[in-house]
Give the backbone structure.
Amino acid sequence: MATFLVLIPPGAKSRDESARIVRDRFSWLALVMPVIWLLWHRAWLAAALAFAVQALGSAVADHPVFSLAGLGLCLATSLLVALEGPSMVVAGLERRGWTIDAVISADDRETAEEIYYMETPAGEAETRDSVSLPASETSVRRHAPMLGLVGFKEGR
């Protein structure tokens, strides 16, 4: 199961057709090409920062003593974008006024869209018919011993 975040634009209502569905997952393409992936998803500031850090890592990698440190910096940047790229995209949309309308767990994007756009009866909210009480509230013997411990019915 994957997790999908549904964002709606400013001023839009729930289940709007212009909602954007973002899958929160690891991205292999972002691992291989982090700057291009960020540019594709219009995360301009994050793309510029990733480019600067990878350029610094490449410059450090040219030095014979710090070559592994430079390679590690480039790899860490790619890994960070691959893991947190969707979160960066969501944060960018939220800065522009978009709001998270729903979080959906589904097998694929089509199923997530079906769940999100599923019609409910005319303005009727989904509610539970009954409220379940904890087991201790429904028991006749309120202070009965549990797991072999002594009860405190008579006091200490």
User: Anything to note?
Assistant: The chain has a mean pLDDT of 81. Residues 77 and 105 are 28 Å apart (CA to CA).
